[in-house]
Amino acid sequence: MRFVIVTGMSGAGKSTAMKMMEDMGFFCIDNLPIPLLDKLVDFATNFDTQMKNVAIGIDARSGENLDKVQDMLEILKSKDVQYEVLFLDAEDAVLVKRYKETRRSHPLAQGERVDKGIMRERQKMEFLKKEADYIIDTSRLLTRELKTELEKIFVQDEEFNSMYVTILSFGFKYGIPADSDIVMDVRFLPNPYYVEELRPKTGNDVEIQQYVMKYDEAKIFLNKLEDMVTFLIPHYISEGKNQLVISIGCTGGKHRSVTLANELYKRLSQKKNREYGLKIEHRDIGKDALRGK
């Protein structure tokens, strides 16, 4: 039997993950009373049931019983029960935004602002995060991307990488992305915008890519950036960081930054034995067109 405890921060996507795991063949129980946890495991392991894969949802709704989870995990260990912990997390600002959009109250806010509830919940959930076998930061994940990550873990049995690297192109005139960890400015490169026939195209078009990458300074910059990122990522992983956003910006986020972001993504995705997931986004690639420029 595969026994998974699904937990994490309220608003990080635990309920969505549980539904996805149910589709993957797991018998899912959300918000199970903590004192019943070991009894459920005993039933599933000692009787002839159809529960071959079980996922139990535990979160802040358990209230004071949440403090008993650690004792329950010790009981499971004493019984040699093999279990896995999946922890769904997200940045505080993202959690606040999600709560405001749904107009729900945080279970630990106690009549105060949402951010107070999130702070209390982080303190209560810290021990479970340390126990986690898998930590997925959903701050920038689309629903289909979360499903892909869960399938890798629970269907394809691929080795899981807690670190997720996002390479993000942007335009400085639209502001630096607030969640950037590393910001690189490529406005020193020649700008295709001033070549009339290239202006409507983007860094996803081969003509722009050839224009930008024909310059030695672009190639040298890319080599140095790849070298720096390759050096940094293992150190971020060892420090427990699970989300890294590398933002590459030019003036409008359409030509140079898109080209360099694509090139960096291509190089990193080709590395063997990567210890991190990888995705790419072009935040501002279409904004000039929307403005009629």
Question: Your description of this structure?
Answer:
Helices cover 41% and strands 19% of the residues. It is of the alpha/beta class and 293 residues long. It folds into 2 domains: 2-154, Rossmann fold; 163-290, no CATH class. Helix 1 crosses helix 6 (143-154) and helix 8 crosses helix 9 (256-269).
Short characterization:
41% of the residues lie in helices and 19% in strands. The protein contains ten helices and nine strands.
Keywords summarizing the entry:
2 domains, five-stranded parallel sheet, elongated, Rossmann fold, alpha/beta, 293 residues
Q: Which segments are poorly predicted (pLDDT under 50) over 5 or more consecutive residues?
A: none
Number of DSSP helices? 10
Structure class: alpha/beta
Fraction in beta strands: 15-25%
How confident overall, as mean pLDDT? 87
Per DSSP E runs of 2 or more residues, the count of β-strands stands at 9
Total number of domains: 2
Biggest sheet character: 5 strands, parallel
Query: Strand order within the widest sheet?
Result: 2-3-1-4-5
Helix content: 40-55%
List the helices and strands and how they pair.
Blueprint: E1 2-8, H1 14-23, E2 27-30, H2 37-46, E3 53-57, H3 69-78, E4 83-89, H4 92-102, H5 114-131, E5 134-137, H6 143-154, E6 163-171, E7 182-185, H7 206-213, H8 216-238, E8 243-250, H9 256-269, E9 276-282, H10 287-290
Parallel strand pairs: 1-3, 1-4, 2-3, 4-5, 6-8, 6-9, 7-8
Helix pairs in contact: 1-6, 8-9
